[in-house]
């Protein structure tokens, strides 16, 4: 069991804005962290530096307390004990499945290699596929072999670079769950690079949100979703309702009434951030906020209702489970359940370290 | 990303779902590759190959001026050099012009018109690539001895080199969006005006690149001009080397010739760059519907038949004739077998050495974009600009001065092949390595392989088919090589090409024919595949 610690990692390609601008991230041993960010935010560059394919301009990477990238230090990739699962698997097309999995076991005896290869294929649910060639496998199977290959040499860290991108959505959920189970059972520390917030929230123990070469927030999936550090993070990890509001201690006053806050703010005006599923729709009555249904879109498990609220410039979205009877033009009264976060203008997000989370925090 | 400051809006449920593209590629250059440092052993091996490729060129210059620059200048600055210059340039100009006419007309007829049997004509149009210039010259002079001289040389060279124009122009024609021509027609231009004003300007980069290749071919050619007894630089270098003990004239003339070819290669590289640029942006165009030829159908068929007859049928027929009239005195199966065996051996050795030397350079060029990698790749391409006769001469000089035991021995000949044909093998290796994604090499590194292990277990096995194709092509060009082989072959050893040249030189056409036939048969295989590939 080995932890991964990234401190102040900086990298730029030529002049211009750096791709990584002081990334801090700490993943406790045996945990799976998702690095979530939009395209071009630097997450793949970060992965390549951790793996040793790229050199950093500044900052350090420590694996199990040993500095592998740092000032004057660069351990070559083959000596880092890191497994990588690239996009689309990247199986060696000229080798059979078994020889792909055994590729990292060069130092072992043939018998040991066979045993370990068999174990790994069993682990990812591909028992008996050893003699197939990669092109004879489906995309999901290739991805599982890729994971088996990465795990076979018992790496300290496994890096997964958007491994589910190429799979169609029906397959994705299953492969994701299997990958998580396989990682858990080997106890490897994992880093999952992704731009898909659902994937990050549902698969990882920790989510680090990256923007413009920095980690702007990291914490448990629940934390990042419920207590986003700023409106950008809130919008990036899921649907949001944003209201102008003024902090009154433990509550904030908004056009939708008085809403309880996660953290108290006094007297300052800012943006109150809620999730669409925290809103409910009731019948309009005297003092409650007034709204008119602008649009209804049905998604199957839930329905998204767009409501124009008196006193608000833009409409709000309300997620209601199941179908609804409302039609555009109906008068409704939106109400809020649960707590919200209040964000003061111009708050600058900064790097963070999520090393302190105990196992209980992820439950 | 939407600005998070706006009130009351909702972000899309999964913001980045709509963008499943490759993540994180910050702006123009691929980030990962740029930062990778080439392993030392690869740099060392590639540097060795590049040095070997440059060595003859450098030594040629050293040798030319070693008796002092004035002496070399006096040797070169003569009326005779001027005359040679005029002869070489004149020949090149005539051949290039003829090739442009042949190449462009055939390309247009086979790609864009309703010419009956278009596919067959396009294969026929590429076949002359398989005919070495000296074989074409042999075929014509043995049938029409009066052709000897300028006209014969121009004729033979045109018929073997017009495919260098035909192939790129045909490819460019296929790439042009027919909608442009339709627009011109709709704007009131007739077919000829449309071709001249819309199509032809877009063919210019391809035609210019092809024309420069033809010029390079003509300047470097030794076989056809010597069989046609037309004195150009290459023939003069050979004569001067054979006739005189003073090596300076041959070396100095070689330097002038190399200067000319280097200029051509530089010009060709420039047009190629621009042609590539001109072709981008189109995507895949809808194939043009073939233009009906109407009354021009029979003249067009006549034109294609005439070119095919002169370029393919006539040499084949002449060969057949000489084979048929051969008798037991001229027809020597044992000699043919022996020469064929020796040719296969030297070509195989040449291809093997060339491929080995090309491997580090090709891998470096494909995987490591940097100043050093680029310089090494360029150096390895030196052979592209240096005519075979000058490489042969430089190797003779080097061996006589520094490695006499190697003089007129097999290793020297094989090394000359490597210098000459390194560009072919490097190009093939680079393209083959680029075929497989570099992430496979990253994965292999993460699984514990060092750079050498990655090369041995991943890069080379994956690129093997492309490298093998390059080796096969190198093998064929080694077999056909004439001028360097003439200078460097061990005494008493003949390849098919040198034997053909010797027999033709003494007028023993019937004795030369079997060697020509075998050469064509072997060389036709890759040309045929190439032609099928492109049509």
Structural notes for this entry:
The complex is a heterodimer of chains A (363) and B (535). By secondary structure, chain A is of the alpha+beta class. Chain A has two domains: 243 residues, Rossmann fold (3-Layer(aba) Sandwich); 104 residues, Beta Barrel (OB fold (Dihydrolipoamide Acetyltransferase, E2P)). Chain A is built from eight helices and 19 strands. In chain A, helix 3 crosses helix 4 and helix 4 packs parallel to helix 5. Chain A is globular and about 80 Å long. The C terminus of chain A is likely disordered. Chain B is an all-alpha fold and 535 residues long. Chain B folds into two domains: 200 residues, MetI-like (MetI-like fold, Orthogonal Bundle); 236 residues, MetI-like fold, CATH 1.10.3720.10. Chain B is built from 24 helices and no strands. Chain B starts with 30 loop residues before the first helix and ends with a helix. Classes of the chains: A alpha+beta (363), B mainly alpha (535). Chains A and B meet through helix 1, strand 7, helix 8 and strand 12 of A and helix 1, helix 20 and helix 21 of B.
Distance between the termini of chain B: 47 Å
What does the radius of gyration of chain A come to?
A: 24 Å
- SS summary, helix count of chain B: 24
The count of DSSP E runs of length 2 or more, i.e. the number of strands of chain A, is: 19
- Give the CATH H-level superfamily of the largest domain in chain A: P-loop containing nucleotide triphosphate hydrolases
Structural class of chain A: alpha+beta
For this structure, what is the CATH homologous superfamily of the largest domain in chain B? MetI-like
Mean pLDDT of chain A: 87
Largest sheet of chain A: 6 strands, mixed
Structural class of chain B: mainly alpha
Q: Largest interface: which pair?
A: A-B, 70 and 49 residues
The amount of helix of chain A comes to 10-25%
Largest sheet of chain B: none
By CATH, the architecture of the largest domain in chain B is named Orthogonal Bundle
**Can you write the helix and strand succession of chain A as a string?**
EEEHEEEEHHHEHEHEEHHEEEEEEEE
Strand content of chain B: under 5%
Give the class-level CATH name of the largest domain in chain B: Mainly Alpha
- Could you tell me the CATH topology label of the largest domain in chain A: Rossmann fold
The CATH first-level class of the largest domain in chain A comes to Alpha Beta
**Could you list the spans of chain A in which at least 5 consecutive residues all have pLDDT below 50?**
347-363
Proportion of β residues of chain A? 35-45%
């Amino acid at each position: 069991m080995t932890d991964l610690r990234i401190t102040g990692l900086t990298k730029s390609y030529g002049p211009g804005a750096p791709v990584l601008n002081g990334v801090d991230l700490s993943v406790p041993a045996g945990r799976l962290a998702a690095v979530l960010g939009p395209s071009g935010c630097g997450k793949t560059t970060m992965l390549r530096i951790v793996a040793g394919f790229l050199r950093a301009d500044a900052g350090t990477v420590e694996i199990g307390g040993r500095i592998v990238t740092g000032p004057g230090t660069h351990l070559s990739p083959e000596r880092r004990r890191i497994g990588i699962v690239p996009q689309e698997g990247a199986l060696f097309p000229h080798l059979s499945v078994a020889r792909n999995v055994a590729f990292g076991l060069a130092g072992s005896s043939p018998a040991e290699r066979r045993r370990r290869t068999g174990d790994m294929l069993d682990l990812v649910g591909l028992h008996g596929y050893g003699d197939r060639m990669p092109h004879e496998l489906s995309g999901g199977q290739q991805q599982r072999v890729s994971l088996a290959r990465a795990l076979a040499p018992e790496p300290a860290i496994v890096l997964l670079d958007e491994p589910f991108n190429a799979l169609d959505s029906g397959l994705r959920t299953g492969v994701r769950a299997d990958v998580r189970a396989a990682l858990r059972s080997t106890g490897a520390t994992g880093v999952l690079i992704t731009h898909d917030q659902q994937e990050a929230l549902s698969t990882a123990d920790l989510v680090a949100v990256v923007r413009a070469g920095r980690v702007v927030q990291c914490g448990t999936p629940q934390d990042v979703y419920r207590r986003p550090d700023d409106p950008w993070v809130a919008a990036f990890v899921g649907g949001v309702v944003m209201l102008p509001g003024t902090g009154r201690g433990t509550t904030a006053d908004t056009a939708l009434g008085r809403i309880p806050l996660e953290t108290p703010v006094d007297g300052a005006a800012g943006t109150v951030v809620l999730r669409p599923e925290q809103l409910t729709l009731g019948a309009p009555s005297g003092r409650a906020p007034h709204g008119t249904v602008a649009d209804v879109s049905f998604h199957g498990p839930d329905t998204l209702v767009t409501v124009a609220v008196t006193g608000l410039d833009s409409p709000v979205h309300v997620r209601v489970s199941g179908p609804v009877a409302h039609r555009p033009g109906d008068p409704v009264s939106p109400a809020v359940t649960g707590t919200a976060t209040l964000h003061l203008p111009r708050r600058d997000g900064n790097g963070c370290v999520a090393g302190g989370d105990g196992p209980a925090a992820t439950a | 990303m939407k600005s998070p400051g706006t009130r009351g809006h909702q972000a899309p449920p999964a913001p980045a779902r709509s963008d499943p593209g490759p993540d994180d590629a910050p702006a123009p250059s691929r980030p990962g590759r740029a930062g990778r440092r080439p392993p030392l052993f690869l740099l060392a091996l590639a540097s060795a190959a590049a040095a070997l490729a440059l060595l003859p060129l450098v030594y040629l210059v050293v040798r030319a001026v070693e008796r002092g620059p004035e002496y070399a200048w006096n040797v070169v600055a003569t009326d005779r050099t001027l005359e040679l210059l005029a002869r070489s340039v004149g020949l090149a100009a005539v051949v290039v012009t003829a090739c442009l006419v042949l190449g462009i007309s055939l390309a247009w007829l086979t790609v864009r018109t309703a010419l009956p049997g278009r596919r067959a004509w396009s294969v026929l149009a590429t076949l002359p690539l398989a005919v070495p210039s000296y074989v074409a010259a042999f075929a014509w002079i043995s049938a029409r001895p009066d052709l000897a001289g300028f006209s014969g040389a121009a004729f033979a060279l045109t018929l073997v080199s017009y495919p260098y124009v035909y192939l790129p122009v045909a490819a460019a024609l296929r790439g042009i969006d027919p909608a442009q021509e339709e627009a011109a027609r709709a704007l009131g231009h007739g077919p000829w005006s449309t071709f001249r004003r819309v199509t032809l300007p877009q063919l210019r980069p391809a035609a210019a690149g092809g024309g420069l290749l033809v010029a390079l071919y003509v300047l470097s050619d030794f076989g056809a001009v010597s069989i046609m007894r037309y004195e150009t630089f290459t023939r003069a270098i050979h004569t001067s080397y054979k006739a005189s003990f003073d090596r300076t004239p041959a070396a100095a003339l070689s330097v002038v010739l190399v200067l000319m070819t280097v200029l051509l290669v530089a010009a060709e590289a420039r047009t190629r760059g621009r042609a590539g640029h001109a072709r981008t942006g189109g995507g895949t165009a809808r194939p043009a519907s073939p233009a009906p030829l109407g009354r021009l159908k029979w003249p067009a068929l006549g034109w294609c038949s005439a070119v095919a007859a002169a370029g393919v049928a006539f040499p084949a027929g002449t060969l057949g004739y000489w084979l048929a009239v051969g008798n037991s005195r001229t027809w020597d199966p044992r000699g043919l077998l022996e020469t064929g065996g020796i040719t296969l051996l030297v070509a195989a050795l040449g291809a093997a050495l060339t491929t080995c030397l090309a491997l580090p350079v090709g891998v470096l060029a494909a995987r490591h974009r940097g100043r050093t990698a680029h310089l090494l790749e360029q150096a390895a391409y030196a052979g592209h600009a240096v005519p075979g006769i000058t490489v042969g001469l430089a190797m003779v000089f080097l061996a006589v001065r520094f490695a006499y035991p190697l003089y007129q021995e097999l290793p020297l000949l094989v090394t000359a092949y490597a210098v000459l044909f390194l560009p072919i093998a490097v190009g093939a290796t680079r393209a083959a390595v680029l075929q497989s994604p570099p992430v496979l090499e990253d994965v292999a590194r993460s699984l514990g392989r060092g750079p050498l292990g990655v090369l041995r277990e991943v890069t080379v096995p994956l690129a093997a088919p492309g490298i093998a194709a390059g080796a096969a092509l190198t093998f064929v060009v080694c077999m056909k090589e004439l001028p360097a082989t003439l200078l460097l072959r061990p005494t008493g050893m003949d390849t098919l090409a040198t034997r053909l040249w010797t027999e033709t030189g003494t007028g023993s056409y019937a004795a030369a024919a079997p060697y020509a036939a075998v050469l064509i048969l072997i060389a036709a295989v890759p040309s045929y595949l190439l032609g099928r590939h492109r049509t």
